[in-house]
Amino acid sequence: MEYSDIIIIGGGAAGMMAAAGAAKVFAGSGDNTQAQPGRKVTVLEKMPRPGRKIMITGKGKCNITNTRPWNDFSAHIHPKPNPLKAAFYNFSTADTIGFFNDNGLETVIERGERVFPASHLAKDVVDTLVRAVSASGATVRTGCTVSSVSVSRDICIPGKEAERSMFNIRCEDGKEFTCRKLIIATGGLSYPGTGSTGDGYRWAQDFGHTIKRCFPSLTALVPEGYKNFSVRGSQPEGGRGTDGNTPLKGHTDRSLPLSETGASLAGNQLKNVSLTLFTDGTPVQEEFGDLDFTDGGIEGAIGFKVSRKCVNTIINGSKAAVSIDLKPAVDITALDKRIATLWQEIAADPRSRGKSYNDRFRVLLGKLLPATLVQGFRRCNQNIDHKTLAARLKNWKMNICGFVGYERCVITAGGVSTDEITAKTMESRLCQGLYFAGEILDLDGDTGGYNLQTAFSTGMLAGESAAKSILK
Ligand SMILES: Cc1cc2nc3c(=O)[nH]c(=O)nc-3n(C[C@H](O)[C@H](O)[C@H](O)COP(=O)(O)OP(=O)(O)OC[C@H]3O[C@@H](n4cnc5c(N)ncnc54)[C@H](O)[C@@H]3O)c2cc1C
């Protein structure tokens, strides 16, 4: 049995920052000086290297954080930002940038206030974190898959005064660890190949915590007819809920082949379009920006923005649909006029002589849409002519029948209820000495660096609070 003052399960963004924070408090300074002799901070990480997920962030470039002030930043945090506020102010965006700069990583701020390593290499972010944690005196033990967690005394009674508690941690290979303060930072369920397989939810439940329903967010939305469901029978339900068993309604495996319609749309990247999400026919969210059709379905900045609400709609058994406005800068009357003029020009063009209506209509579409989109748009909008085209360009409706699951979503929404966590310390209200940090919490952000900042802020606060409470 190996003893540490603080053990952190999970060497991801939150866990590594928690280790740096705890060791810094033990060292009694804000620098990278060694942890106070005799004090031990240990990270247990199941993968051969820490920070596996960070390596794939921001398409390998890692969007570390976002410099928007709290008032703007908080609008990008779900389901409610308040539980993050104390952690954010304790370790803000500027602190994150300072932390990486002080540890030798240059950063740059780009469009949308997004911060990246100047090298645009996620690997450099991981290396910097590993270096900083090791310089702080904390230890990272890789290849340690924690299989069970327990507390040695029955201290899980809310409101009871501090009893000296000991947490016991067992790994799959039989190794055992014990500690006074335990931080669970095992992440969510997305990209399980990175090590994030939701193990922490089970332990949180064992300690009496409520797990808010988990679901994939920042994920591809699958329009009806986009995938070839006949290849593997009907609509698959292969996703799973937090308990690992319950099928996730609407989950559509990313690897399911595209239908002919899907294949004709995939690869198109639409700039500056509008996307409106409908729940049971009612518009609930409208976004403007870039949208991509991919092998998964609808993605891109605005696809991801509406994905949280859309997935929720489907899981709740309601009907989800989207409408794309391909010409948001022009109103329908002006667009109608423009199409009428184009139609006359095409009719008057000598090259149109002898051409069928369909051929001329294709020429018209070619003048209004990117060439690669014409076929797919046509397939999805079969009963239109030049008179009804304007309305369809401004309101291209698609029913959404599913979404890509944890296998390829960016973030897990839901998790450990923040109502049961003290926001000023990240300590459990139900079990003294137990802390949570990162994606395991019921906190998820939009794309733009919000999720890593959430992991860094909650990790740092959990680490500092755990160490301070030992020194008290
Ligand atoms: C493709 C992709 C791109 C992304 N891009 C960005 C981006 O650019 N900017 C941004 O802000 N966010 C991005 N995110 C989100 C961001 O990566 C996560 O929110 C963040 O990494 C969460 O950090 P975490 O430490 O809480 O969890 P994780 O990073 O998931 O770390 C959890 C760690 O715990 C370990 N673990 C789990 N179970 C055990 C166990 N039983 N025993 C021991 N160890 C265990 C895992 O191996 C893992 O290393 C992206 C996510 C994905 C999937």
Distance, first to last CA:
25 Å
Tally of strands: 22
The CATH architecture term of the largest domain is 3-Layer(bba) Sandwich
Number of domains: 2
- Overall form: elongated
Number of helices, where a helix is a run of at least 4 consecutive DSSP H or I residues: 13
CATH fold title of the largest domain:
FAD/NAD(P)-binding domain
Task: Please bin the fraction of helical residues.
Answer: 25-40%
Mean of pLDDT: 93
SSE-based structural type: alpha+beta
Extract low-pLDDT stretches: 233-238
Strand content: 15-25%
Please identify the oligomeric state. single chain
List of distinct ligands in this structure: flavin-adenine dinucleotide
- The CATH superfamily of the largest domain bears the name FAD/NAD(P)-binding domain
- Provide the gyration radius in Å: 26 Å
Classified by CATH, the class of the largest domain is Alpha Beta
Largest beta-sheet characterization: 7 strands, mixed
